[in-house]
Amino acid sequence: MKIGNIDLGEQPVLLAPMEDVTDIAFRLMCKRFGADMVYTEFVSSDALIRSVNKTQQKLIVSEEERPVAIQIYGKDTESMVEAAKICEEARPDILDINFGCPVKRVAGKGAGAGMLRNIPLMLEITREVVKAVKIPVTVKTRLGWDADNKVIVELAEQLQDCGISALSIHGRTRSQMYTGEADWTLIGAVKDNPRMHIPIIGNGDVTSAETCKQKFDDYGVDGIMIGRGSIGRPWIFREVKHFLKTGEEPPKEPFQWYLDILKKQVADSVARLDERRGILHIRRHLAATPLFKGIPDFKQIRVAMLRAETVEELFGIMDAIPQQFHLE
Q1: Among 87, 101, 162, 212, the one annotated catalytic
Q2: Is 101 one of the annotated active-site residues of the chain?
């Protein structure tokens, strides 16, 4: 699969852009485990133009994580064009436009998935951003606003006509948010459309290596994006790549191996922010990780981990788990 002149190989697996998740430390970790491309957290065009420091920090990319895409969102053409030019100066490989975020503070103001209610403006923004930068521009969106307005098959053609280099589709409507099951049949319909010639990347409910292969086989997509399935589990990319290559799950590592990865995430987060903010930031990974799934009577330990306020306290709790539950 190629996006512009960037060759991602056959059946690439990408780390989806996620707010408060895909910071540079997590992107680098997923990259080391085999993610073929990574995306920044989404960047507000308005905040970028106002030079908000926290937003500008999101533009920092590392040579080690390439190819990397910066994702922007906004609700008007002028600010999106200006933001796109600022992003290009940060030297990402790709610029991605977010037309898919369903959260109220974004979609409710007409940005992200809110654009699915104003397709002419969505297309105008896309056309103008493509014209404004020299790097490839891609789009991430959803099936439509709600069950009665699943417009993605026609919309995909229109976005392609605007000059984008690839399209990522999350298999839910905005109204679904993250509930229910992702519907990949319409993603497959976009891929099967003979008028489409850009790469189609599928996204939604890919939480295992087997599921990833099944989506490639059943829907013929060019690439697959993994989002929530990577939270607290950056090693999923290693598992997926191994399964795609061999048809088998990779051998399980010792429990301590996975625990050390989570501890490294904690350490990276604290180093990037500070102890208090770093621990707060990483709690969602500790809450979501499947590593502790199935351990009997684990609830109190989980609560203690999520309440820990210092690295020393948190690591003390984590280090006791293998012995306490006789895990190898």
Answers
A1: 101
A2: yes
